[in-house]
Specification:
Blueprint: E1 3-9, E2 14-20, H1 27-31, H2 35-39, H3 42-61, E3 67-71, H4 77-84, E4 89-93, H5 97-109, E5 116-119, E6 138-143, H6 155-165, E7 167-174, E8 177-186, H7 188-191, E9 199-203, E10 206-210, H8 214-217, E11 226-228, E12 239-240, E13 245-251, E14 261-267, E15 273-285, E16 293-295, E17 315-326, E18 332-338, E19 343-349, H9 354-360, H10 372-375, H11 378-384, H12 387-400, E20 406-410, H13 416-422, E21 427-431, H14 440-446, H15 448-458, E22 465-468, E23 485-489, H16 505-512, E24 517-524, E25 527-537, E26 549-550, E27 553-554, H17 556-567, E28 575-577, E29 584-586, E30 591-597, E31 607-614, E32 619-633, E33 636-639, E34 642-645, E35 652-654, E36 660-671, E37 679-687, E38 692-698
Parallel strand pairs: 3-4, 3-6, 4-5, 6-7, 20-21, 20-23, 21-22, 23-24
Antiparallel strand pairs: 1-2, 8-12, 8-13, 8-15, 9-10, 11-17, 14-18, 15-16, 15-17, 18-19, 25-29, 25-30, 25-32, 26-27, 28-36, 31-37, 32-33, 32-36, 34-35, 37-38
The protein binds S-adenosyl-L-homocysteine (SAH).
S-adenosyl-L-homocysteine binds near residues 75, 154 and 158.
Length: about 700
């Protein structure tokens, strides 16, 4: 079998598919997997164990043999719990081969080989009968197939199939049931991830307001789930318009239907406001009585003592198709529609005729009609709606633009060309490279050109800004009406960027268009710098930390497997995380480690640096955080990482729209003695040939 791995190439701004050799064995997938996080989820593990013991007892009390089907066994954990609880036999199904292999080893090491059979198949391929994978149907169904949206990993079709073919009627299920909860809220912050707000620009001839085209106002957006660590959303950033309401439940001990359907609840707003967002999470009852409950409820719904940090299950943010003003006490209906894998919401006003309502419900997943939701993802919407950020760019543009400026903008889906026009540039061209990496079918769908035409039309900007659909190296003088560029601008932002420095593609593009630049060209940003800080994470460290034992079972085989994968070639590299969701404290001062001069072309040689950072605060150094800052013009910089250090304790405030790079250290050191601070030495190398940054740290 051939394995292809996708990788963004920062020197071309496009996505490339590389074929991996025989020895690849899914290292990236394992290194970045959520297994460690699940094994660290004490609350989940304890409750599963409790629920499994109770289910085995119930079956035994009926005088039956306890035959367990564990779908998606992963490390084999839940099967080992069942075997320890006295189950007679367990069929442990795992589709992902490297995991199935690990499960065999872990089961053996823990002495359960005679009680647990690991089957490396998708559950829908499993056969039952004397010659089958399973001798007989199971009477206990154990699974953990849930994602933050509950059903996004295919739990429903898997259960549907299992009830038809793999388990007995009246079987016990752990978990027994799942319930989805919702709360209607108003939140300018979260709504700013869904639609573009008007942009205000003070120009020479008065204030200009850039408005989104009308299609964007009513566009339902895209169906992909927006899952976040809602516990990091301060209560000042949203206002609850309803109580928490049960939306729907699924009983896993009975046949499950996966076909599209909808659920509807009545709501009475507790407050008047603008209904924009549905916040949602779920809980699972491990037993029929509901005594063993594992919940994802956020901090304002449950006591702090019950909070368990986890990254594999978070909370969901759903965007209503449009904003609805609602009045306290009025009768509303909230409808959840779902297909096999995803959920979406709509709000209706109460009407006398119930039947009429039913006719209203179209169980059709949302499709973006305005194209903007295909061009901009949710953090990008948030970034474009960030007025203070926009003001920085306006201030910088104002410094560099003249009435005779010929301006070229290189960034994906950027508003800079419009700002440059409003601020008086004579000619504005925009190079959209974002589609260079897309499949032709997708380009057609999202065609940036069409979106921009609608945009320009809504703002009477037709013919004012020229969109060039060419890669920078293919730019011709005719694209620019034979003029030289006097101002080259970029945010920079490119849709293929994964790590902060991938936006240095701007530098490569700038190099490629060199011959079109006037000798006196101004480049904005004039330079970029890479910054670094050593941190202690409150919780994020768990996702890359070994587990040793989990509820008494030895899972070191899994730890070793993750370690091997992290050490495999480039897997040991920085990874992107949006740190506003993952609190940490700084142990060192932030430090500038590399600078990139955009006024010059990309050099042939590598850029490297070495040095040491002192650990000034007491704490565990889990890793280094790296981010980029862009120097737009004299005294005007924007940071895609640290915004500020908020207090003496080193709490950090991060840019809420960007992911930062996190490099986890392979061992953690505790800095203790502050009079003689420990130093961490580093070596960082920017390879100008590949556009990648390699780093090494010694503690
Ligand atoms: N049960 C383990 C791991 C849960 S992660 C634990 O609780 O710690 C879910 C696992 O299920 C993944 O390893 C995934 O590969 C596997 N999986 C998901 N759907 C499956 C299916 N229908 N058949 C077999 N394996 C499945």
């Amino acid at each position: 079998m051939r394995t292809f791995c996708g990788r963004a190439n920062p020197t071309t701004g496009s996505m490339e598919w590389l074929e991996e050799g025989e020895d690849y064995d899914y290292h990236q997938e394992i290194a970045r997997s959520r297994y460690a996080d699940m094994l660290h989820d004490k609350d989940r593990n304890v409750k599963y164990y409790h629920g499994i013991r109770a289910a085995v007892s119930r079956v035994k009390e009926r005088g039956e043999k306890a035959i367990v089907l564990d779908i998606g066994t992963g490390t084999g954990l839940l099967s080992m719990m069942a075997a320890s609880a006295g189950a007679d036999f367990c069929y442990a199904i795992e589709v992902f081969k490297p995991m199935a292999n690990a499960a065999v080893k872990i089961v053996e090491k823990n002495g359960f080989s005679d009680k647990i059979k690991v089957i490396n198949k998708h559950s829908t391929e499993v056969t039952v009968g004397p010659d089958g994978d399973m001798q007989c149907r199971a009477n206990i169904l154990v699974t953990e197939l849930f994602d933050t949206e509950l059903i996004g990993e295919g739990a429903l079709p898997t259960y549907e199939h299992a009830h038809k073919y793999l388990v007995q009627e009246g079987c016990e299920a752990v978990p027994h049931r799942a319930t989805v909860y919702v709360q209607l809220v108003e939140s300018r912050r979260m709504w700013s991830w869904k639609k573009l707000f008007p942009v205000h620009v003070e120009s020479e001839d008065g204030e200009k307001i850039l408005v989104p085209p009308s299609e964007m106002e009513s566009c339902p957006g895209v169906p992909s789930v927006c899952d976040i660590q809602l516990n990091q959303m301060p209560s000042s950033d949203f206002s609850a318009l309803s109580d928490v309401v049960k939306m729907f439940s699924v009983d896993f001990s009975k046949p499950v239907q996966s076909a599209s359907t909808y659920y509807r609840v009545q709501l009475e707003p507790v407050k008047s406001g603008k209904a924009q967002i549905v916040l949602s999470w779920w809980d699972i009852d491990m037993d029929p009585s509901g005594m063993i409950n594992c919940t994802m409820a956020p901090y304002w719904v449950k006591p702090a003592s019950a909070l368990q940090w986890r990254d594999h299950w978070m909370q969901c943010v759903y965007f209503l198709p449009r904003e609805e003003p609602v009045l306290q006490g009025e009768k509303l209906y909230l409808t959840a529609c779902r297909d096999e894998y995803s959920v979406w919401y709509s709000l209706q006003r109460a009407r006398a005729d119930e039947e009429e309502h039913k006719a209203d419900v179209r169980v059709e997943s949302p499709v973006c009609r305005c194209r903007a939701h295909l061009l901009w993802n949710r953090p990008r919407f948030g970034e474009l709606n960030d007025q203070s950020r926009t003001r920085q760019y306006i201030k910088a543009l104002r410094k560099v633009l003249k009435t005779d400026s010929v301006c070229l903008c290189i960034s994906d889906g950027s508003l800079l060309p419009v700002l440059a026009h409003y601020l008086g540039a004579k000619q504005v061209h925009s190079l959209e490279v974002g589609c260079g990496c897309m499949q032709p079918s997708r380009i057609d769908l999202y065609h940036p050109h069409k979106l921009w035409l609608a945009f320009f039309k809504a703002n009477n900007l037709e013919d004012k800004i020229k969109i060039i659909e060419a890669r920078p190296e293919l730019l011709k003088p005719s694209h620019l009406e034979d003029k030289k560029i006097s101002v080259l601008v970029g945010e920079p932002f490119f849709t293929t960027s994964l790590l902060p420095w991938h936006n240095l593609y701007f530098w490569y593009a700038r190099t490629a268009v060199s011959t079109h630049l006037a000798s006196s060209v101004t480049v904005l940003p004039q330079s970029a710098s890479l910054h670094m800080m050593i941190v202690e994470f409150q919780d994020l460290w768990r996702i890359r930390s070994p587990c040793g034992t989990c509820e008494g079972f030895d899972v070191r085989t899994m730890d070793d497997m993750i370690k091997d994968s992290l050490n495999f070639r480039e897997s040991k590299e920085a990874e992107p995380h949006p740190l506003w969701e993952y609190p940490c404290k700084s142990l060192s001062e932030p430090q500038e480690v590399l600078t990139f001069d955009f006024t010059k072309t990309v050099p042939q040689h590598c850029l490297s640096t070495e040095g040491s950072v002192k650990l000034l605060r007491k704490g565990k150094s889990h890793g280094a955080v790296l981010w980029m800052e862009y120097h737009l013009a004299a005294d005007i910089s924007v940071s895609t990482g640290l915004m500020q250090l908020t207090n003496e304790k080193g709490n950090c405030e991060w840019n809420p729209h960007c992911k930062q790079a996190v490099y986890f250290f392979s061992s953690v050191i505790e800095s203790e003695i502050l009079s003689d601070p420990t130093a961490v030495t580093y070596a960082i190398n920017f390879d100008t040939k590949t556009g990648e940054i390699a780093m090494d740290f010694k503690l």
